[in-house]
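Sample intake — D-2-hydroxyacid dehydrogenase
Collected from: Bifidobacterium pseudocatenulatum
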Amino acid sequence: MKSIAVLTSPEVPLPAEGCALLDTLPCTTTVCTPGNAAEVVGASEACFVWDTDLTSYIESQWDAFAHLSWMHVAVTGVDSFLFPKLVNSNVLLTNASGIYNDSIAEFVLFCILSHAKQRRLLESQQRNHEWRHATSATVKESNAVIYGVGSIGRTVGKTLTKLGLHVRGIDPYTSVAEGFECIYRNADMREAAAWSDYFIICAPLTEQTRHSVNAEIFDAMKASCHVINVGRGPIIDETALVQALTSGSIGSASLDVFETEPLPSDNPLWEMENVHISPHISGDAGDFELALIRQFADLADMWFHGHDFPSAVDKKRGYAHTRQN
């Protein structure tokens, strides 16, 4: 019988309902931690990585995982998993594509409305018991650029279009997407940035996207532009971002991801009045943990019966794509 190892740690246990769901799979499923994972994963054909902070451990033990043909990770961004031995192996890699789309789109909308409606000012007035008139901006007819028109970016675009924003994208491969007026290539990012009122990063972290939003791009933006990052922290050159925010080259930012996480306590972003910080939570909403396990269970059933998955990670490009039969 086919066997699956579920790799986690004592600090990141699976929810009880999720364990019960895994027990219904038509194959042997064994939960393991780094204490016994070399033996359990080493004897399994598939591995479900629940604690996605175990990438260093997985890389260090990769040679022991000789029987693996499939690895699924409970996260969308797979950059930390793409170490050379996995990339060059025949192991099929899948991720949590689609699970976080709606939650992240809602979070982006929250960032935009919080900025436009001056949430920080209103909260300050409430704390100080101040009744003072304040005006706010409307988001309808604003220009939003979405960098990364994958499944998350497309969902964000649809959400913003419904509110009356003009939406354009930046993507090296996608040319057309519902609700997008046009999609620029990465080489035209300065032109897109100059048009934007909201510059929203949804791209995966690859060698091509690392520090691609840098001083040159910030210089092209309007002084009122609001930057939102729900993709990966290192896509932004953080030093250049701090300089742009300090100098007034751009207006403000909502940041959910950072170059170093947790964000160090001495990072200047913490003290900036024109920055909203959240601790990498844009997709963590509702029953997302159970949704992750249900997704894996569906894939495991397909795997057991020899069916192709609807999508898989392109290990060379660094993100999931729809598989072609």
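Post-analysis note: The mean pLDDT is 97.
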